[in-house]
């Protein structure tokens, strides 16, 4: 049943995400692509939308995937699923297990997980970048010129602002700029 | 009080763009400075707990502050408050996005946005990688997980990211908690 599955899969995602929104992206990708809930392209479009709307990325993703798969009730199940593990764990820590985060085994677990989370995020970014410019596997290379140009321009603009104007562009600013770039580049290059 | 918790966190949820860490600034403004529900020290403690526990940082914070101010009901209302704005906005977007994507210029815009998303994720990863402990185990874990992810992905073999978390966590327990290698210097830990 789709509602139970949405709830359960997003519960698992909520339970195993350590270190905020970006860390959640590879976990959500595994699930939505494996179940065929979204194509890879749809998923990355969704990240763009989630980054430019308010609120935690995790909630945005759960709400969207839930809605596409099961309407408003699906949306509710997925969001409840992703929220519940944090909610229950924090409630326990705040009420009974006050010193849980000082526990020796828990600390060891977190220390072990941290570098793996960073690697997951970095690997997600890297494979996405490779796919974007057309490298989808060891054997298939189809250069995607508009994406490549957009990528170079986005990076150039970001570092230009950082170095020349000493200003760090926020995620939403980067996305808005890239949307304009996409329109301009595609209008020029594509027939 | 319960209603106020709900409204304050609703506002925080509505005006936070760009994920958990952006929210910390909002929490500071509303919860610490304006309402005085938390001291700076308590906030630092909550951030540490939120980072060490699974799930979105925003949810962790809302639950914790809600509990401190209004027990179980307070934490439920604060969490509901912080979730609701995203839920409503994204639900509405989800009804139109696919149709919207059929527009030529929207699909052009998303060619650019896709590149920006790759750039943002990569940049977040690089920033975090700089902060990894410069010790053997963290570096080995990082390299193995990174290489495994990339190679399996290029070979189109699926391996759930959850397993990486579980395996590295268990390794952490064995090495740090049971064998006790690499004890953190208390003074150093305080500085980080």
What does this entry look like structurally?
The complex is a heterodimer of chains A (191) and B (192). Chain A is mainly alpha-helical and 191 residues long. Chain A folds into 2 domains: 2-110, no CATH class; 145-189, no CATH class. Chain A contains 7 helices and no strands. Chain B has 192 residues and is mostly helical. Helices cover 82% and strands 0% of the residues of chain B. Chain B contains 8 helices and no strands. The radius of gyration of chain B is 21 Å and the shape is flat. Classes of the chains: A mainly alpha (191), B mainly alpha (192). The interface between A and B is large, with 105 and 103 residues.
Fold blueprint:
The complex is a heterodimer of chains A (191) and B (192).
Chain A: H1 2-16, H2 21-34, H3 40-51, H4 57-95, H5 104-132, H6 145-163, H7 171-189
Helix pairs in contact in A: 1-2, 1-4, 2-4, 2-5, 3-4, 6-7
Chain B: H1 2-15, H2 20-34, H3 40-52, H4 57-101, H5 104-129, H6 136-154, H7 161-179, H8 186-191
Helix pairs in contact in B: 1-2, 1-4, 3-4
Q: Please give the alpha-carbon distance between the first and last residues of chain B.
A: 35 Å
Shape of chain B: flat
**Annotation, overall tally of beta strands of chain A:** 0
Mean pLDDT, all residues of chain B: 83
Catalogue the unreliable spans of chain B: 185-192
The chain-level structural class of chain B is mainly alpha
Work out the number of β strands of chain B: 0
The domain tally of chain A reads 2
Rg of chain B, Cα atoms, Å: 21 Å
Number of helices of chain A: 7
The H-and-E topology of chain B, N to C, reads as HHHHHHHH
Going by helix content, strand content and strand pairing, the class of chain A is: mainly alpha
| Secondary structure: helix percent of chain A | over 70%
**H and E order of chain A:** HHHHHHH
In whole angstroms, how far apart are the ends of chain A? 44 Å
Number of domains of chain B: 2
* Largest binding interface between chains: A-B, 105 and 103 residues
Q: What's the gyration radius of chain A in Å?
A: 19 Å
Binned, the helix content of chain B reads: over 70%
Specify the oligomeric state.
Answer: heterodimer
């Amino acid at each position: 049943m789709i509602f139970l599955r949405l709830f359960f899969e997003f519960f698992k995602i909520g339970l195993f995400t350590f270190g905020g929104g970006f860390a959640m992206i590879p976990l959500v990708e595994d699930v939505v692509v494996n179940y065929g809930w979204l194509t890879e392209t749809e998923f990355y479009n969704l990240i763009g939308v989630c980054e430019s709307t308010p609120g935690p990325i995790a909630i945005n993703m759960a709400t969207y995937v839930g809605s596409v798969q099961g309407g408003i009730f699906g949306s509710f199940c997925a969001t409840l699923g992703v929220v519940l593990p944090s909610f229950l764990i924090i409630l326990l820590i705040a009420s009974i297990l006050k010193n849980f985060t000082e526990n020796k085994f828990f600390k060891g677990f977190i220390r072990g997980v941290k570098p793996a989370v960073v690697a997951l995020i970095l690997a997600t970014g890297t494979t996405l970048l490779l796919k974007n410019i057309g490298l989808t596997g060891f054997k298939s290379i189809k250069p995607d010129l508009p994406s490549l140009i957009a990528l170079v321009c986005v990076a150039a603009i970001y570092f230009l602002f950082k170095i020349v104007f000493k200003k760090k562009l926020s995620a939403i600013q980067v996305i808005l700029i890239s949307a304009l770039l996409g329109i301009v580049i595609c209008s020029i290059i594509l027939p | 009080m319960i209603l106020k918790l709900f409204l304050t966190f609703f506002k925080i949820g509505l005006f936070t763009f760009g994920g958990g860490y952006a929210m910390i600034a909002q929490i500071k403004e509303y919860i610490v400075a304006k309402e005085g529900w938390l001291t700076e020290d308590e906030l630092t403690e909550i951030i540490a707990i939120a980072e060490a526990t699974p799930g979105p940082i925003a949810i962790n914070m809302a639950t914790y502050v809600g509990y401190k101010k209004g027990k179980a009901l307070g934490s439920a209302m604060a969490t509901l408050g912080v979730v609701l704005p995203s839920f409503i906005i994204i639900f509405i977007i989800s009804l139109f996005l696919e149709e919207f994507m059929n527009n030529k210029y929207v699909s052009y815009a998303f060619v650019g946005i896709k590149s920006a998303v790759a750039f943002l994720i990569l940049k977040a990863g690089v920033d975090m990688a700089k902060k990894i402990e410069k010790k053997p185990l963290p570096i080995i874990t990082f390299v193995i997980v990174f290489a495994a992810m990339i190679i399996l992905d290029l070979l189109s073999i699926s391996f759930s990211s959850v397993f990486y978390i579980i395996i590295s966590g268990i390794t952490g327990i064995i090495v740090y908690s049971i064998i006790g290698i690499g004890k953190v210097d208390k003074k150093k830990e305080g500085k980080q």
